[in-house]
Amino acid sequence: MGRMGQALVAAIAQAGETHAGGVDQGDDLVALVGGSDVLVDFSSPDALEATLNACTAARKPVVIGTTGLEERHHWLIDDAAQDIAILQTGNTSLGVNMLAALVREAASRLGDEWDIEIVETHHRMKVDAPSGTALLLGEAAARGRAIDLATHSERGRDGITGARPHGTIGFASLRGGTVAGDHSVLFAGDGESITLSHRAESREIFARGALKAALWLAGQKPGRYTMADMLGL
Questions:
Q1: How far apart are CA 105 and CA 182, in angstroms?
Q2: 123 tagged catalytic
Q3: Can 212 be counted among the known catalytic residues?
């Protein structure tokens, strides 16, 4: 009954696929998973372990679009992916994942003399920052430069911060109104700059992407996958 859940129901109906059912807090997750071909999860990090346990027990694949995941959640996903197919992503939009591919390519070719800044804007109700999409884009940039994002990121600048550390990837998060999601990646060089961006106009784009990912994942072997795998990027 959440906003993404309702968008998914609408996308499934529009595509002519069968909606087996949905789960909100307190509902019977195990029964739903058992009667489904694939699960799509846009819940919360706290619910992830129960979701993975139910899917693993039933040998059913799962698309995870939940954001705000921590390192321990990724350990759980890696463990479950030995038995079932899992596609985990910070954003199910096809456009965002194409943007990530462009960011990776630009970061690889421009080199670390170009500074990278990622700016994201979301509605006032979003609880995590940076957004899962911003982190996805940051990871893409880090892969392009063959560096570790965790040790090369700058967040929450305030006060006398000193000069920008060389080779880092900066993040800025804006919150307000009902913005579905705006993301920009700035590559700033000496005397020139490039901005790659994506604007989400509605949640329907995430629902359509999640549905496409679910239909693709249903035919995959156990393992951990990304939207880039599904798109062949």
A1: 21
A2: no
A3: no
Please say if the pLDDT value at position 110 is more than 90: yes
Of 175, 220, 227, which is closest to residue 206 (Cα–Cα)? 227
Annotated catalytic residue within 60, 73, 74, 126:
126
Residue 119 DSSP SS3: strand
Is pTM beyond 0.90 here? no
**Active-site choice (60, 73, 74, 122):** 122
Give the Cα separation of 24 and 14 in Å (integer).
22
Query: What is the per-residue pLDDT across 187-212, written as a single tens digit (0 to 9) for each?
Result: 999 999 999 999 988 889 999 999 99
First-to-last CA distance in the chain? 33
Q: What is the pLDDT of residues 159-190, one digit of tens each?
A: 998 999 999 999 999 999 999 899 999 999 99
- The residue type at 19: H
Q: What is the pLDDT of residue 213?
A: 97
CA 205 vs CA 14, 176, 177, 201, 217: distances in Å:
13, 20, 19, 8, 18
How far is the C-alpha of 140 from the C-alpha of 192, rounded, in Å?
Answer: 22
